[in-house]
Design brief:
Strand order of the largest sheet of chain B: 2-1-12-11-10-7-8
Low-confidence stretches of chain B: 121-127, 420-424, 553-577
Oligomer: heterodimer
Number of strands of chain B: 22
Low-confidence stretches of chain A: 1-16
Radius of gyration of chain A: 28 Å
Number of strands of chain A: 0
Strand content of chain A: under 5%
Shape of chain A: elongated
Mean pLDDT of chain A: 85
Distance between the termini of chain B: 145 Å
Largest sheet of chain A: none
Strand content of chain B: 15-25%
Structural class of chain A: mainly alpha
Radius of gyration of chain B: 57 Å
Distance between the termini of chain A: 59 Å
Structural class of chain B: alpha+beta
Order of helices and strands of chain A: HHHHHHHHHHH
Largest interface: A-B, 65 and 70 residues
Shape of chain B: rod-shaped
Number of domains of chain A: 2
Largest sheet of chain B: 7 strands, mixed
Chain lengths: 290, 577
Amino acid sequence: MTPVMRFDHHHTRMRHGTFLEYKKFRYLKLATLVSVASIAAYVFHKPPVTPYGGTWLGYTLGTIGALLILMLLWFGVRKRQYSAADANLQGWLSAHVYLGVSLIIIATLHTGFEVGWNVHTLAYVLMLGVIFSGFYGIYSYVRFPSMITGNMAEDSFDSIMLKISTLDSEARKIAMRLPDHLVLAVQAAAQGTIIGGGLFTQVTGRQRNCPTTAALTIIQKGGADLKGDAAKHNHELYSVMLQRKRLVDRARADISYRARMSIWLFFHVPLSIALLAALAAHIVSVFFYW
Amino acid sequence: MIRCLLAIVTRNKRGEPSSEQRLVTGTELRLGRGAESKIHLNDPRVALNAAVIKAAEDGRLYLEALSGNLNVDGKFEKTTKVKPGVRIGLGPYEVAIEPSKNQNEHDFILNLELVEPLPESLKEEGQRARVTLSAAGLSKRWPALIMFFVILGGFLVWPILHATQPGVKTAAKNLSFAPDESWDPGKLAHPHQGFGKDCAKCHDQPFVQVRDSTCESCHKTIGGHVETKTVQKAAFGEARCAECHRDHKGPLGLIRTDTRLCTDCHSNVKAHAPSTSMVNIRDFATDHPHFKLALLDQTGKATRILQSEKARLKEKSGLKFPHDAHLDKKGVKSPTAPNGRVVLECKNCHTPDAAGVRFEPIKMDKHCADCHRLEFEPAVTTRTVPHGDPKLAMTTLREFYASIALGETPIDVTTVDGLLRRTNESKSEVARKKAMEWANQKADKIAADLIEDRSCATCHTVSKQAGEYQIAPVRITNYWMVKAKFEHFAHKTAKCVDCHEVEKSKTSEDIAIPDIDSCRTCHAGQEPAKNKVTSTCESCHGFHLGSPKRGATAANQVEGDPHRGIQVAAHAGRAAK
């Protein structure tokens, strides 16, 4: 046997770009093809009565749509299987996104634009909910990672927190030589500044009446009356607290970006599980009362 | 080249220092968290490139902050001279410069001490609250599980149990909605709405398509499409009712009215029924053949003749009726009209039937008798012979003249003249015989005048066989297009003469049924055309045998039924005997 030299293209090719550009838009092309074919079939199809899910084209589009939904749901399982030998999550995500979008066209044509207050339209609406929350997901995956990196630079969230803690002890030392109300402000900033918190606070990245901001104002105002060494210390304290404020802002921005990057999943995932149930009810009911 | 003796200071529990020393050299000495730093500060709070020691143009060494500030003896600075005795705070580290102890080996000693060690546990930092959405109380799992089971239970399990378990059905009886209503894909057709909430009325077997037998349990009389059963089966196979009749398509959605219902087969009809004599039809506007008119022969049998076969297109109704004379603009003679003439219109004789589809049959007594009076004795204007049977007419004549000859004035005869006087003579046997002879001769003479010349022969063909008068049977066609439906009420906006040219017709053989070209002046095919009515097959034809739109078939051309059959004048049958 002659050993055959093989190039593993998978590894030799530079993998750059995002999941949207994966393999020169392979799945965009596939999704476009499927969508255009569906539209063409719909246009040329002459159903006996009205176009709907029960014509041969309706059944065909419905089958394709249902299989696509199952495949897209499988992505949720797939991305948790780290051990999968041929794990190629970028490819899966690319397919997930583009085929998911094409599902709008396939499923809408499947309905024949018939809607009503029934389980069939429920499945359709849930599917649209999943897809449109996914649109936000695409946006967030394109937008936030670079913002997170830019915000964090060479720091990590933990290092920022440690820096804040170091600044706190420094500030405390400096404040010891300053009037009481400044010591209190520094203490309040150290103890009362909340990074993270509830849903709203995380998403907006703001704390109402933030003690660190308040301390800065107090130090600035309090410094006006001070003279000599005290004024110098006050100035130093202001510098420390300004650094603290900047770190707090960055930490909050980090949380906010991450929250905004993941919040859609709290809709996308439960809606897709609900869709699975509605899809099952839709398919079984249609054939139960055929 | 900068040569520095780096002394890393650590302290034991009692706070006594000890140091680990090594020589660090380079054109510049970098301090930072990064591994490439000559002086590595292994602490997360330190910047990657925190500071650098380098020689300035004056040859002196400076420490310059690359990130943040230096805390030089309690003051924040960007740069500071590297000179013995200076203490510099760099994040959690303290840098102290000492003079060299061996100038040959190094330029200065740099004491590095971690003065602010890392807290034991990061969790002790109270300000680090909830930094993930999950920690903020958001869950993917719970909403997913709740929605999954609510939807599966409410829209799948419950309806199935309702359909299969009588107990569940009984329990749900008093609800204002049925559990399987959520499965209803759309509004039912009007006739089905009355029982529509009970899905099982039609969907009587799970996972089985609605069966024809279920439809036929109510629709008992509806027929197939083709009379011949073998052709029906060959053309339609086992096609189910529901293949065409899709319900849940709205109140009027149950019946197909599209052209393809017909043209799927009729555009190439021989492929589906090889023995047929029908031609291919795709559209009324383009390739519909000429209409066939059902013409009756003397026995009442209908033969359908193409309107293009003009030579054969003569109605043999047995009646003499010139439309032109009756529609004379100056009017026709009328004994009842004040000025002796009456102008007739179509509607005087052609009265729409109750359905407004066709017309009531023409009747002598109703439509003709006002003018065409059957008086026989000029002296007695109130007496007429009965219409319909020449034998009865003869009997009337004989009775009338016999009674007069015998001196018995009929009670309705009040006129007194020579006729009456003559009968008042004798009643002897001879005289009676003579009177009878006279009466018969008189009756025959009057009959010859009345039947052969003056009255009957005006409209009828009269012959005499074995001394008895025979009137040719009258069969007026009332139903010309038996395979189509034509509703006159739908054409009310048109005048009669728009379609029926009868004003110049001199004989009843003329047929005034409009041909396809006449219809096409107003009717387009399935494609809309300007100022025309879009017309599909279904506009004129029905699919099912037995449907009112389908028209008559040879089998159901019922005599006397003006809507279905062919009008046969009431007396014709008897006269023919």
